[in-house]
Structure formats: C-alpha cells, structure tokens
Amino acid sequence: DAGWVTIRIVDSNDAPVLSTAPVLLLENSAIGVESSTFVGAFDEDGVDDTLTFSLAAASPHFDISSGGALIPKVSINFETTKELFVIVRVTDNGGRYGEFSPLSTIANITVVIEDVDEPPVANRTLFSVAENLVAGTSVGFIGATDPEGTAVTYTLDRTQLSGGLFTVDAATGEIKTATMLDFEQTTFHTF
Asked: CB under 8 Å, gap of 24 or more: what pairs does 176-179 form?
C-alpha cells in the first residue's frame, strides 16, 4: 500500500530590496523639510511588512525620513553640484506579522540634482545725474547676472514709476534719460 508524504514550506523573513536607480532632487529644495524625493524599496513578504528607512552612514547633505523621503541638510545648487551620494538602510519589521527578526539592506543611492530656472540678480545701484541734460544722456549701467549663465535682457518693468523719464538698453543695461530732468520737480527716481 502506497503512502503520501506532505512537505509543508514554512515562511521565513526575506530582506527588503532597495532600488539603486538614481533619484531626482530639485536644486535649492527647502532645508530640513521632507522633499518629494523618495528612495524606493520592495519587500516580497508583502505590503503588511512595514519598511523603515535610515542613513547607514552620516551624510553632510541629507537626512532621511522613516518613510524614505530625502531631507536636505544644506542648500544644493545645480550650478555647482550635479549629483550626490547617500548610503541608505531599509529595515523590515520581521515578516508580515513581526514573527521573525528584522532584516536590513544597505545601498549607495545616487541623487541627481535637477536644475531650476532661477531669476537673474540685479545689483542695487545709486546713480547721480545733473538736471537739464539732453534726452539720451547716459546715467549708468545696471549690472545683473543669471545663475544659469544665460544672457540677461534688461527692461524697465516699472516705467510708470519713472514717468517715462528713462530708457534702458536691453542688451547692455545702460540707462539713459528720455527727457530733460528737473531737480525742482523730483529729486529721486526709484524703479
């Protein structure tokens, strides 16, 4: 008479797996605030196995939330830094129901910094000019730089404040009088 043998497979805890795909972070992300950049991980023990993230090695640039969100510790500028690295640990809670010892995995994660278009920065300047000069007289040059290195175009967005008394050369930033100025009418023009 033939008998049957039954072999039962017993579950064990499987270590979580960290995604080593690069993650993207916008430059100048808020310091000390969870970013929208998350490190990815998977645990084949299922969705009931809670994963907790931490740094496996101290980072001068990042902390990480227990949910895997990167938290910038410093301002990161794309123009000076294109990518950084952070060593992350992900730990499970010991199986679906916590019946096993927790397991961890560590991986080196590449953080690619994404460029954000930043506005040009103009130098604040005080110019002095004599009254009663002819229209077209040079007052001075506005200095401005663009953090991305893009060419700057100059305009007077607030010409209503200057009463149409000045023009600016779009390419050079040179301010010129558009009409004769009269000290007795207005001593300062700010725009």
From this structure: 176/135, 176/136, 176/137, 176/138, 176/139, 177/129, 177/133, 177/134, 177/135, 177/136, 177/137, 177/139, 178/135, 178/136, 179/135
